[in-house]
Amino acid sequence: MKRTLLSGVALFFLLAGCNGGADADAEYFIRASVTMTDGSSFEFHEACIVSQVTISDESYWGMEAKDPTVPFGLVFSWKEDYITGPGSHDVSEGLMDMSTMVVREHPTDPSKIRMSGVSEGTIVFEQIGYDTGDLIEGTFDDIRLDRDETDDTVHIQVVDGSFHCRIGN
Questions:
Q1: Which of left, alpha, beta for 78 (phi over 0: left; psi -120 to 50: alpha)?
Q2: Given 23, 37, 90, 132, which residue has the most CB atoms within 10 angstroms?
């Protein structure tokens, strides 16, 4: 139930932050090196948006960035009570309290996108606060999306990532 709730929260952040075509040189960003299923790679560097939503008296946060021309995006979401300060987290450790999603082209309908949760990788919050103007910054590495299904075979790796986002930007 909570995993479904966190996935729904991540989808909310994605839809709420529809900022397509954000300035890649923005002061607040998420950046990383990405290797796609076909072996192609690119440098992802897009403006980030930080959002907050309260559900059943619990505060959930998200930061997301996307490039609709690829299409590709990253959405990190977490429960405020779970990430209370700087620290390192394996993306699979907080399955009910933290989620990392990859936004990508839908495998059977290219006019749509698909959002998939990842189960490998590390995210490090070096600075985090929850008041307007606070910075949320850190690094992430070895984010992997591996999916082998009949209609959807995907192997995406995101490495050497960093984020520098601000609440209320």
A1: beta
A2: 37
pLDDT in tens, 56-77: 999 999 999 999 888 999 999 9
Coil, strand or helix at 47: strand
Residue that wins the pLDDT comparison between 156 and 3: 156
pLDDT tens per residue, range 22-55: 444 479 999 999 999 999 999 999 999 999 999 9
Within 8 A by CB and 6+ apart from 49, the residues are: 13, 17, 19, 63, 64, 65, 165, 169
Q: In what order do the strands lie in the sheet with 49-55?
A: 49-55, 58-67, 72-79, 98-105, 113-117
More confident residue, 142 or 107: 142
Note whether 10 and 75 are within 8 A (CB). Answer: yes
Query: Residues 7, 130, 10, CA angle at the centre, nearest 5°?
Result: 10
| Separation between Cα atoms, residue 50 and residue 67, nearest integer Å | 16
Q: Judging by DSSP bridges, how do beta strands 87-90 and 120-127 pair with one another?
A: antiparallel
